Amino acid sequence: MTRTSSSAQALSFDHAAADYAANRPSYPAGLLDAIEEITGFPLAGARVADIGAGTGLGTRLLRARGAHVVAVEPGPGMAAQFRLDLPGVPLVLGDGDRLPLASASVDLITYAQAWHWTDPDRSVPEALRVLRPGGALALWWNDSDASVPWIAAQDARLRRLFGAEDRPHDPLARFRRLPASPCFVHRQVEWARSVPLRTHLANLASYSDFLVLGAEATEAFLAEERAALGEVFPDGTVEERYVVSLAVARRREP
Q1: Which terminus of the chain has a lower count of CB atoms within 10 Å, N or C?
Q2: What is d(CA 209, CA 203) in angstroms, rounded to the nearest whole number?
Q3: Residue 21 resides in a domain
Q4: How many CB atoms are located within 10 Å of the residue 13 CB?
Q5: Per-residue pLDDT tens for 224-252?
């Protein structure tokens, strides 16, 4: 939402890797079910490259399905946290515009909350190079479900803070910004989690917009949110609802 460069925002996560790992939401099992349905092959035994892996939220789920995962992460701080949390998973430093992977070496490339940090003119050809024929590229994003009144109200406050009132909440915009080729198949998966109010606020603070905003302004906003949400959730447990937007494209067989 800010005017800060995307590269600065992407690298800002390095300074909050532990908080990111502790407070960010994961993803529902239905997301992986949808990936298997669209790709037509099981994740169990598949060779997967998780790009922009961060602290490994997506990687962990892929491994739990039996995939053989290699992670690629550009930020040294996030990579260090990844190694603490998932010491047995291969990890290399790199980014989606210059994948440090061999051609035709994987069955599936995943981007969990990370595709928007790439340049599609570079990341699409790189993905197609690294995928085996018949392999697939899967992109997904977690978005708060703005059909829930308290989430819509919070979203409006966030947009006012970051000067983005003219950009309404629209998860489907993720799909419209994808390149026309390769051809993507779209799905949306709804899910929810219940967390303490402090976890919800810590999750907000881990957003890249807040990480570049500065501590004073961030703390002021979070104090107002703590008061507002305390009225909605007097027991201190926040019922978060999400919509995962998934897009999957296959590399054609020769």
Answers
A1: C
A2: 12
A3: yes
A4: 24
A5: 999 999 999 999 999 999 999 999 999 98
Kindly state whether residue 104 falls inside one of the protein's structural domains.
yes
Average pLDDT of the segment spanning 139-151: 96
Number of domains present in the structure of the chain? 1
| Placement of tokens 């006012």 in the chain | 160
Q: Collect all residues with Cβ–Cβ distance below 8 Å to 245 and sequence separation of at least 6.
A: 140, 141, 143, 171, 172, 174, 175, 186, 187, 188
Lookup result for tokens 């829930």: 148
Helix (H) or strand (E) run with residue 217 in it: helix 215-232
Give the residue among 154, 185, 155 at the shortest CA–CA distance from 170. 155
Domain ranges, residue 140: 6-144+169-194+241-250
Reported as a single tens digit per residue, the pLDDT across 165-196 is 877 777 788 888 899 899 999 999 999 999 99
Residue linked to tokens 């197609």: 128
CATH number at residue 176: 3.40.50.150
